[in-house]
Structure to design on (486 residues):
């Protein structure tokens, strides 16, 4: 949109010259020679700038200047006074005092006149942008949820937003022109203890920045009410101190429990196994040195004693291993678990039994875990499959794996006797047996040991089965995430 210039001058040749040169420079002009016409042109023409001669015959251009500068609806209109060289310095001072935006003295080169008017319009555009920017800034800080204050160089509050009034429990008018009263620290956040108008104490987090406000240096202060946060932090500190004390007590209790477990393990290891060894030794001695004197019933009793003491010894060994797992560290590394299954299968079978078992191993991803502990898991689960499929004409055992995003799931399936799924929650319990001991030997601890090891690795175990149709045992292990747990 082209800028409009209203030219007010009582000399026709001035009007013609100014109109011609401004139109050639891209402006829209309207020319008048008296005040009455000029007053009407303000509303009809709606100029952006008035080029005003202060001497209009018997009239004074100052009257038009006063009207423009005193009326709110003309506040965006620039007024530039142009007059002859005979005008006094007092006229110039009076015009500027009334609010004139510029003062030009004839004679003035036409080119200079255009340059001066162009400069006024650039100034006008800059001022308009600044006004809009200041209006946006004012709107922004007025609606800010934090308390916003502007403090002048005397330390007095010259602006406060509604959030500041709410923070200090005061009306905005009560804050205006009041001394801020708190140290202003630049460049960092500062916590200040606030005293509200209702005498209630609060805590604020203050930030400051230097700004220009209405053409004067000032400080913009932002204060966030952190009273609730500080109270929460204080409560959490008390809670954490209590938790730390509780953790210390629980840690001490755990330490005592571990000591008791170690003492229990020592008791089983020495006090229980020693008499068992004596029973086994004396029973064998009786069988070897007095076997010919025993009748059939005596020989059966000696055989039962040896079989049950052997079972008791194995049960003690399994319980010891189960209890030791609670304190045993886990040293993780990449493990070739496929090779581990092959080795364990070879260790658990002899040449004759191996030839009758269809043992299949699929492609298995490397496991990430403690190789010794994982070998025990493989041994316990594989021996379980061998035991319950041994009665089949053609035993089949299949080892497979499946990779998910963060876990590797291994499975061992067999075509053995299986079990009813309603008992699936019991199979990993200590001493849990789903079949009679007379049918299948075992202490009922092996799968419990396997479960505890997998849980220590951060994995899980489960099983699927159907009676007389075999079983499938699963265990999952987390993939290597780049760290090693001990």
């Amino acid at each position: 949109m082209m800028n409009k210039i209203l030219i007010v001058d009582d000399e026709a040749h001035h009007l013609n010259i100014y109109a011609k040169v401004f139109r050639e420079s891209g402006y829209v002009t309207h020319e008048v020679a008296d005040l009455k016409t000029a007053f009407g042109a303000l509303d009809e023409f709606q100029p952006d700038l008035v080029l005003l001669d202060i001497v209009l015959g018997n009239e004074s251009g100052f009257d038009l200047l006063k009207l423009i500068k005193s009326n709110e609806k003309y506040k965006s209109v620039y007024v530039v006074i142009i007059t002859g060289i005979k005008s006094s310095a007092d006229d110039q001072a009076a015009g500027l005092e009334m609010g004139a935006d510029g003062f030009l003295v004839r004679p003035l080169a036409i080119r200079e006149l255009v340059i001066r008017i162009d400069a006024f319009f650039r100034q006008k555009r800059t001022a308009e942008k600044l006004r809009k920017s200041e209006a946006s800034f004012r709107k922004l800080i007025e609606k800010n949820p934090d308390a916003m204050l502007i403090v002048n160089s005397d330390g007095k509050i010259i602006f406060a937003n509604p959030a500041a009034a709410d923070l200090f429990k005061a009306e905005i008018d009560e804050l205006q022109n009041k001394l801020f009263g708190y140290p202003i620290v630049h460049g960092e956040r500062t916590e200040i203890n606030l005293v509200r108008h209702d005498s209630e104490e609060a805590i604020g987090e203050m930030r400051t920045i230097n700004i220009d406000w209405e053409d004067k240096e000032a400080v913009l202060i932002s204060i966030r009410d952190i009273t609730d946060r500080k109270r929460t932090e204080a409560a959490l500190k008390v809670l954490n101190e209590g938790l730390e004390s509780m953790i210390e007590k629980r840690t001490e209790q755990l330490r005592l429990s571990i000591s008791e477990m170690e003492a229990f393990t020592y008791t089983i290891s020495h006090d229980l196994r020693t008499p068992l060894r004596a029973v086994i030794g004396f029973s064998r001695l009786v069988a070897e040195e007095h076997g010919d004197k025993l009748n059939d019933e005596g020989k059966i009793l000696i055989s039962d004693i040896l079989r049950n003491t052997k079972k008791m010894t194995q049960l003690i060994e399994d319980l010891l291993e189960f209890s030791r797992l609670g304190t045993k560290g886990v040293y993780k590394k990449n493990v070739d678990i496929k090779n581990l299954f092959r080795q364990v299968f070879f260790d658990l079978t002899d040449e004759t039994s191996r030839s009758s078992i269809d043992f299949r191993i699929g492609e298995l991803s490397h496991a990430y875990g403690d190789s010794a502990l994982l070998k025990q898991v493989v041994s316990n689960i594989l021996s379980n499959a061998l035991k319950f499929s041994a009665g089949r004409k053609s035993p089949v055992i299949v080892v497979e794996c499946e990779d998910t995003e963060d876990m590797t799931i291994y499975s061992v399936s067999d075509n053995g006797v299986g079990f009813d799924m309603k008992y699936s929650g019991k199979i990993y319990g200590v001493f849990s047996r789903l079949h009679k001991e007379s049918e299948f030997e075992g202490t009922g601890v092996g799968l419990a040991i396997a479960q505890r090891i997998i849980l220590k690795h951060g994995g899980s175990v489960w099983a699927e089965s159907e009676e007389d149709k075999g079983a499938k045992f699963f265990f999952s292990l987390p993939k290597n995430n780049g760290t090693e747990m001990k």
